[in-house]
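Lecture notes, unit on protein representations.

Consider one protein chain, 235 amino acids long.
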Amino acid sequence: MDIPSLLPSPPVGANLANLPVPKQEWVERAAGSIASAREMAANIQLVFDGDSITDAWQTHGRCIWEERYGPAGAFNFGISGDRTEHLLWRLKQGQARGLRPKLIVLLIGTNNIRRDPAGQIAEGIASIVGEYRRECPAAILLLHALLPREREAGSPLRVKVAKVNSMIATLQGPGVVFQDFGGRFLRLDGSIIEELMPDYLHPSEAGYAIWAEAIQPMVDKYVIAVDIPMIAGGG
């Protein structure tokens, strides 16, 4: 998977969140993940994709991953730092081609929050959902709302996150389930619970337990536990 050393400048006025582009620093990792997934395709029932929050299932969430998702044939495509356009590029490179997962768990968009308007972020997420639906039409796609960020409920980024979430909630439909469990990280006043999200962005180990609890009904419904080797993915 080669990419040019200099990518062309985007058209003036283009939605950067919906313009598939790679990141030079991870192209080898992305290529390796795609190759690994194709080798393991017959065993992959459960796919996770996103940015650092998803990527960290292999660190902060590792114990839960090994207990619950490894035996279910899970593969993690998440890459730290990715924005919507990076994940979209990975899909355009054939990341999901040939896979037949039963459930896809998608959480992406928080890294776009500082740069892009809410509507453009939602458009990028919608394109990702569309790509996954085309490549894996038999799968159920569990689309997560962006998690809350910044400590206080009224912070500008928190307000923007809520706006994106209200937009992508409309993507729910045949084959797509929208889920917002971000409230489980908050106190009654809307502030983030530090024990669950110490930097007000990334979940702690306890935070991953909350995420696991939130998605377990979907995993139980669509994914069959089998005795196969654990698949970490994302290497």
